[in-house]
Amino acid sequence: MESKTDFPCSAHCLISSMASGAVFSLSDSSLLKIIQGDITEWSVDASSDAIVNTANKRMLGGGGVDGAIHRAAGPQLRAACFDVPEVRPGVRCPTGEARITLGFNLHASHVIHTVGPVYDSDVNPRESLTSSYTNCLIVAKENNIKYIAFPAISCGVNGYPKDEAAMIAISIIKEFANDFKEVYFVLSEDDIYNVWVNKANELLQEA
Ligand code: AR6
């Protein structure tokens, strides 16, 4: 099934920089939107919106999306992360869990930090990636987030195979279909964008 493209994007910061995307129906009142771009520029209403960060266990910044989010949010984000209690020395967020902070200088009001699996060393990467998506959505729901944007968790330096990651990501989001007004994937790379759109075409109805 083909998806619609070139939709008018309700994420205001993206209108100029992100020309096209694909929209799918999650439920009568909820959409999944897959777009290409920089997740740090995304927001919808700056009050009930959140971007997801693929953090590491210390939560004090890193490369990839993590580095971009910390740079865009400013030093207050690192301070807020520092204040997240450690569950054991050096670990604020274990693999598969999620923590929420404010967004500070970001356009989005909140950041949900999760630690995705390192594909080659995780004992059960599929279970860990499933937990990451699930816990992000649970934390978002608990904090009255209505619009949430994900990157491709673990598909960068963590080395997760893209097709399986897309299947897990979209399947879990389907389970939370009634809990959010819009769920976004904001994907920076062409190949990942194409994998995600193809997988959504398999698993969801066009909007
Ligand atoms: N917007 C959207 N997607 C992006 C952006 C961006 N600004 N920047 C990169 N991507 P990665 P991981 C894509 O490596 O594999 C960090 O050091 C990127 O091309 O950021 O979960 C953390 O501290 C890729 O497709 O995350 C962790 O230690 C995807 O986002 C570790 O890396 C995820 O790439 C997490 O590794």
Automatic annotation (TrEMBL):
Protein name: Macro domain-containing protein
Species for this entry: Eruca vesicaria subsp. sativa
Domain of life: Eukaryota
Pfam families: Macro
Domain Macro: 19-204
UniProt xrefs under SMART domains: A1pp (SM00506)
